[in-house]
Amino acid sequence: MPSSAATTVTKTPKDKAPDAGASGHEADAHDFFWTYTEEPHRTRRLAIIKAHPEITKLCGPEPLTKYVVTGVVALQTFLAWYLHETPFWSLKFWLVAYVVGATANQNLFLAIHEISHNLAFRSPVANRIFAIFANLPIGIPYSASFRPYHLTHHKSLGVDGVDTDLPTALEAFVLDSILGKAFFCTFQIFFYAIRPMTVYRVPLTRVHYLNIAAQLAFDYALVRLTGGPKALLYLLLSSFLAGSLHPVAGHFIAEHYVYETVTPTQRNPDNGVPVPETFSYYGPLNWLTYNVGLHNEHHDFPAVPWTRLPAVYDIAREFYQDLPRHESWSYAIWRFIWDPNVGLNCRVKRKQGGRIVGGAINWKESEIQA
User: Fold this and answer.
1) Interatomic CA distance for residues 144 and 209, integer angstroms
2) How many degrees, rounded to 5, is the angle at CA 126 between CA 120 and CA 131?
3) Are 23 and 270 contacting, i.e. CB atoms less than 8 angstroms apart?
4) b/e per residue, 274-299, with b = 16+ CB within 10 A?
5) Which residues does residue 348 pair with via DSSP β-bridges, in sequence order?
6) With a cut of 70, which residues of the chain have pLDDT below it?
7) pLDDT single digits (tens) 81-108
8) Could you say which DSSP state residue 326 is in?
9) How far is Cα 78 from Cα 258, in angstroms, rounded to an integer?
10) Which residues of 161-196 are buried (b: 16+ CB within 10 A; e: fewer)?
């Protein structure tokens, strides 16, 4: 198989990275994996393009996205109305919210993820506005803020203090137990919502204010037209369950947490043995989640839309078929909670590198999507 960038890691104290020249470093099993290498996706992308230049033809917007999003927004709006007289604590209310609502809102989370890469329309402005529309059944305005944080995650994968997908040292320390990990999995939607603001804040723009205004107007109209808060509570509950103990929520954990057993040989940076930091899933839940399970493929080619990610795998199969993968998102959650060798500290971190998108540095759109 063609080689990709090796990621050499080591365990170090939580408040500092290891000495780059250290040899035979004592590994702390309760800390993150630190590396000094470049994130692997850019290196593999260049190697794939060299081997299969035709793969770049897969880039560009997917027209189907706008129809899928519109259908899911309509479904959730209808169900919110349908349940507006159903008691909140009834089995029916929670069952519909868990089975249909959480799945639908996770679909919308990932639609916004897709739209953040300008993959619904060619116009960046059209994508920003459509993301606000996709946000409506989620109940809380977040699409405008998600984009810069997520694109920074791509540009600064694993960079401590920049990639807000990484758990903080405090989270990893406090939640280092079965109960702590269960708490994290149950309420992880709140961790992903609050953590970015504690790491660094992106400046508010007109798109943010439009996102907030549109969401407040939609929520107000929904409460007024249904005569009470239950319709809005259904949407908010759907969003909470979509990021809780739900099969489709497994992708949050499965994408970048290191589940592979890390040997002492791998922990020693002098050995140059790579530890993977992105994992794909090729199962049926991809049908409901814009193929987000093909996560190595997505990070390698973020400008390729969800409908064409399977083609990336097919064209460059020799680069992907031997990479470690997840067979089940539900099992990924189960193992994350119960396996003592897997936890919030099982992430690859870098002390330097990357750049913030939407911060003090103004990227060109072509640079962001590259």
Assistant:
1) 9
2) 65
3) yes
4) bbbbbbbbbeebbebbbbbbbbbbbb
5) 33
6) 1-30, 261-275, 359-370
7) 999 999 999 999 999 999 999 999 999 9
8) E
9) 40
10) ebbbbbbbbebbeebeeeebbbebbbebbebbeebb
